[in-house]
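[step 3/7] fold_predict: job queued, chain A
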Amino acid sequence: MVLGVTGFRDQRCHHLVVADAIAEERAAALREQIDAAGFAPFYEPDRARCEINCEHSEPALFDELRGLAERICERPLRVARARWLRLRHRDYALLKADARDRIEETHVEVMLDLSARATEQADVIYTDGRESWVVAQRPRSVVVVEREPWLFRYERYLNVQVQAATVYRLRLALLFG
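[step 4/7] structure written:
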């Protein structure tokens, strides 16, 4: 994986997207593994609708993503938690879902998109309530975001145009130190 960290601190929301971070063959294998591990449905209309797995562990992948984030942030990090998400037509996550389930202290969020194809939807929007930063859904990309306490996130609704597409995401929360 080639890494250019230029731009991480250019905006108020410190973030960087690394395109083509993993090979499609590896992404496909990870999709199969997490599908086999299973997902639990999550649906609270005022928070989110998706499928989630908080138990599955891929230590080598987590270490690789942590190392990438450390190079970008230029600080040591440790994994606090991992969440695997599967999103389909009608799925979304609102600000309230992030507000209720977030780590309160400044941390780094690493999001790996394992999807087979782009949906042109399922964007992740980071916001402070006045300004927003859109991260488009792109297969095999990694997004590294420094989540300060004022920065919240939501995920756009997947409408009928996604057809049978499925969005797979791994979201790691990393703490400093």
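[step 5/7] annotate
The helical segments are 24-37, 59-73, 95-101.
The first strand starts at residue 15 and ends at 18.
exit 0
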